[in-house]
Description:
Layout: E1 7-13, E2 18-21, E3 27-35, E4 38-39, E5 48-49, E6 53-59, H1 62-71, E7 77-90, E8 96-109
Parallel strand pairs: 6-8
Antiparallel strand pairs: 1-3, 1-7, 2-3, 3-6, 4-5, 7-8
Amino acid sequence: MASRNPVTVTGNLAADPERFTTAGGRSGVRGTVVENIGYKPRNGGEYVETDPVFWPFTVWDEGLAENVAASLSKGARVTVTGRYTNNVWTGDDGVKRSRLELTADEVAASLRFATATLVRQGRSIDAPPPLDEPPF
């Protein structure tokens, strides 16, 4: 699904992606990207580490969720593109809570520090048929 205001985050997975199923029977995958930000001062000083930023994300697309869970693990460098979603719920204690997270449209393994072998999966029934001609 295309997003009007796409957000892209690159970093390392904080843990293995976690499969889940909602009470309504919808399944997906959750994960967290850790972005380690640092900088080297212009005056040539030592590299300065800053606090890491944690970006929780959820994958709802069934095919993408399966591939993420099967292909990626803790520490893998990834790029996640999607849109921000503010999830609001009431906890078991009756307190209303909220959490800002990224609803992922795409999750990709980074090849900056790794190699990959791609295995193409079959198309789902809902996928549009391939174009016979280029779309231009």
